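Quick entry between incubations.
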Amino acid sequence: MLSLPPGRRPCAIIEFAKVGRMKYLSHLDLARAMDRAVRRAKLPVAYSEGFHPHAQISFGPPLPLGVEGLRELCCLDLARLAPPAEMTRALSRQLPAGLDLVSLAITDRGRRSPLADLEAAGWEIELAESGEVLRSAVESLLAAEELAVTRQTKSKIAAVNIRPGLRELALHQEDKTLLVAELSLRPETLVKPEEILQLLAERAGVESLTVRRQVRTYLR
Amino acid sequence: MLQDEYLLGVDKPARYIGGEVNSIVKPSGAVAVRMALAFPDVYEVGMSHLGSHILYHVVNRIPHFACERAFYPWPDAAEQLRRTGQPLTSLESDRPLSAFEVIGFTLQYELTYTTILAMLELGGVTLRSVQRRPEEPLVLGGGPGAANPEPLAEFFEAFALGDGEEVLPEILETVAASAWRSCRTGENRERLLRELSRLEGVYVPGLYRPEETAEGLLCPTPVDAEVPATVRRRVLQDLDEAPYPTAPVVPWLEAVHDRAQLEIARGCTRGCRFCAAGMLYRPVRERSVETLRQQARETIARTGFDQISLVSLNCPDYSRIEELLDGLHQDLAEEAVAISLASLRTDTFSVSLAERLRRVRKTGLTFAPEAASERLRRVINKGVSEEDLLTAVKAATASGWRRVKLYFMLGLPCEEDEDVLAIARLVERLRQEARGKRGLEMSVSVSALVPKPHTPFQWFSGVSLGELRRRQTLLRQAMPTKGVRLSLHDPEMGLAERLLARGDRRLGQVLASVYRKGGVLEAWTEHFSLTRWEEACCEVGLDLHAEVVREWRPEQRLPWDHLDWGVSKEFLQREWERAATGEVTPDCREGGCQDCGLARLSVQCSQEVPRQPQTPGQENQVLKEEASA
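Done. Structure below.
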């Protein structure tokens, strides 16, 4: 049995897949479905203080609607410790098909949420396009010192260099075209997959690329 | 349903994916009769409807029946289906509606009727029942709309009147045992419809011929002596023993009522003269505290909802409400499940109940005095004094509620300008005197009366659109603006509701025409257009505006006279006469039997259900908890 120093709060870090038709669940719908599964599984979840207590569950960065995730993360604050194997069994039984439990581990909750300091996300994007033009576009991105994209905030449109946040990029062209990337999640170097797709389209000389399937493969 | 490539292009695709927790998919081999339970509105609305959850359970608990859900898609998705030539399908097995043996529509609200036609057509089913091929599904309807289903008669094979728990399985058993199930000939279909018409509570409109009365109304008469002259509503005697869905389907999207629902009682005998529910669902039947606590625990365990709502027409009328609340708190507190009440009446808003309600979510309270003057409240049989309302609002603000919603109606019988202005005066008085320490937000919702069949107001001729608008303007100008949000219901939508509520079979063509002109999801203000209704009426020689203010005389034959919902026409007529003189009729549970006619149905009457003692001097008022946003 796991033990924590006195006064520390335990939490369960849950890795789960959001695949198949579950990709149509919005982040809010996902949060609701997870909350209900946790309640049905009777996990020893901690409830917030106050007049309308709610289960303390936090999530990693939201997946866009229509995008699948293989190792999504959520953090469940626990009121007390329970054997992880038992919790795993109970939660697996209660999660709907397509929201599949990958792992559950108990850790010290700490002051900050364990999900607050995620570094990067892995992406696999299947494209309808293929060919040499695309390959050289990828190479040109990787070779660039600086990659400028424009981002619109509430008040202004600003140019941002996203090259520092582009950690890995590779193109696999076999029976299908697969773009594999690791993109930063840190606020100062954040890169969105659609920004990479836009830059690739520009370099390939097309209006836009057609995404057949998009998967976030991991968060770390 | 929609293929992947289309789902990403529509709003809220989770509406169309199915596979929710507790949804039931049965393999083809084991099922004798498959029924589509069709709700003529979008997913979030339909998934809030308790009656549909009950019927889904009632059918699916029988091994050889399957019940699957179908909703109308939002216009963006409906357009995709039409454009790509795909049919509307059920969520469970993705079957087109045309591939079911039975399609059952719930008739909750008149303005959903054109959506029924849209669902049939999008589901690949021939619109009019006489034109349907023998192999096509039987289209059934049930719910409060079956009080007068005549406008829909030509699109349906049968209507079920009253509680569905028993009659629906009986209908499906009859279908399962019929020759039609395996051999879909026209003759077998005819024979099956005859058999259905022999079930108590089943009305097969095709076996009734419309006869034109002197007033120009079409009133159905049996085609031959084998067809029952009147169809009597089904009444579930023992609510406590009735099946109840403790594992309802948990919606993906936030439903309008996104919580567990616990039906504690059915029926109401207060006798408000405008209220269809109070007339159609008699007598009062209650579930026991023991059953309800068990059902609540099970429902929470199997859904994971964090809120449970007690449902009945008047929650504090439940004879053991305090004991029930205490028990539920005891059972559910540990899991932080909030308890809310769908409706409360202030005459039972006792100190001890207020104490218990301290612990429920205070999202807002709704009082429904319906009329602001004492005189008019006697007309509608909601005898309540202004002082009681004031006391109740004060009690609510003292217990911590800060938002109060008030419901009123315009266009009532005997209504004068003085009564309209009284609404503004009453609101101002409440605002002045009952604001409490932390202030009081008031929202005032004013609808227009829709006279409903099988109520005493079924003979009320009604108020014209112009006159309604004038009264609305009068009210808007008199209403205090500070701290009060006034919302006036669209009087044009009310007009179409009124037309359909008391309509006869001539309206079938009108419905079809409105639908052809694009009328669908008309319960949504943005999708409603009165012009379509006016034009469609013109096409069949009806003047909509004259029709909704036509004269109805108690001695005349009505298009729904052949449907016996329990309360007798004599009782309704007596109540109509008492309305004119402002005479209050007591609740039979307090004032003794009022001879409403229900006893003819050989059911146990409400009078035998014990009630909590009443505090004298506190009279009828309704206090509901607002649906939490």
